[in-house]
Amino acid sequence: MYAMHCPAGDAHVHVLGHPRFDVLLKHLNTAASPNELCDRIGARMVVLWNSHFSFSPSYSQSLNFSTFDLIGPELFEFAKSYQDNFCLLWRPHPGLFPVLAREGILTYSEIDQLRQELVHVGIVLDESPSHLPAFEISDALFTDVGSFLLEYLATGKPILALHNPDGEPLNEESSALVRHYAQASSPEEVLQFIDDLATGDHELPDPTTALEEHLPYMDGHAGERVADLLEKLTAKVAATDHAVGEETASRWTNKPQRHIPKRVSNWGRNKPIGTYQTHTPVLDKLIENLREIRIKKEFEPGWRKTLKRVVNTVQLYLGEAVKHQPVLISLARYLRICIKK
């Protein structure tokens, strides 16, 4: 990326890996310790769901990365019906619940009640500070656009990239990443992915190539390489990315192995596994409102969609142009300061 976009080129760049993945690999390679998630999930097959907040009409044809309204209703209903064998581990973007309240979809008191209802229907809501336990215990991930698309790759487990057809197009780097994953933009495709995961009837995409291409030097020693390089630079010793990289390129002692999800022996989505009469008025309200949002966006006039897309595209291009001009960045910063005053 520096070679393509930086005026100075990439001669000053040292490719050392991602230090943040050192912690993740250490966590994954350490014997799992009992935690709250384990107690709530039990022996069920579990899929981690990371949903973005940009689903409401106010985001239509702008950011709109989220598929929350596109797949949420059917996914919640599925998780309720199959809670004996399937666990939906829901870790929403921290901005999702505030959007529910701000858009009038649910009140804050209803959101608190929703948390309780999810417990009763076997859906595990993960709002803990760290995502590492969820990464460790889950069998697979489906996620909207976000950092989990890259971070979960380190686990070697299957990934379903959720795509909003009316949302922002992915950039070049993200497009290259998700082509290695299974992809879905409808409830039917998501449920088929769960079927494939549970039965093993269809082969899921192998993440090996994506690991090698997008997470170089992921061996748990990136932090050490950073420290070594800083020492060398401080000592005024010439060091190149090739010299540093070759020292540890073969040290893949912690390289994640491809994860084979546990199968569900008595899986059968064509027939309900259990019938549950749990009273969930807030969850039902959320499902109904999401369906209404979906319909409202579907029937939005074509001219309005086109206009929003044009305006959004122009904003994107102007933003990128400003980023490439330091003078414009300084001017924008100055104007922002003046406005605040």
Topology (SSEs and partners):
Blueprint: H1 2-5, H2 20-28, H3 36-41, E1 45-50, H4 68-81, E2 86-90, H5 96-102, H6 108-120, E3 124-125, H7 132-137, E4 140-143, H8 148-151, E5 159-162, H9 172-178, E6 182-184, H10 187-199, H11 208-214, H12 222-234, H13 241-248, H14 281-298, H15 302-323, H16 326-340
Parallel strand pairs: 1-2, 1-4, 2-3, 4-5, 5-6
Structure description:
The protein is of the alpha/beta class and 341 residues long. Helix content is 49%, strand content 7%. The chain has 16 helices and 6 strands. Strands 3-2-1-4-5-6 form a 6-stranded parallel sheet. β4 (140-143), α8 (148-151) and β5 form a beta-alpha-beta unit.
Strand order of the largest sheet: 3-2-1-4-5-6
* Beta-strand fraction estimate: 5-15%
Class by alpha and beta content: alpha/beta
Distance between the termini: 37 Å
Number of helices: 16
Mean pLDDT equals 84
SSE arrangement, N to C = HHHEHEHHEHEHEHEHHHHHHH
Helix share, percent: 40-55%
Q: What does the overall shape look like?
A: globular
Largest sheet: 6 strands, parallel
SS elements, strand count: 6
Computed Rg: 23 Å
Low-confidence stretches: 241-253
Subunit arrangement of the protein: single chain
Primary descriptors:
341 residues; six-stranded parallel beta sheet; 16 helices
In brief:
The chain has helices at residues 2-5, 20-28, 36-41, 68-81, 96-102, 108-120, 132-137, 148-151, 172-178, 187-199, 208-214, 222-234, 241-248, 281-298, 302-323, 326-340, and strands at 45-50, 86-90, 124-125, 140-143, 159-162, 182-184.
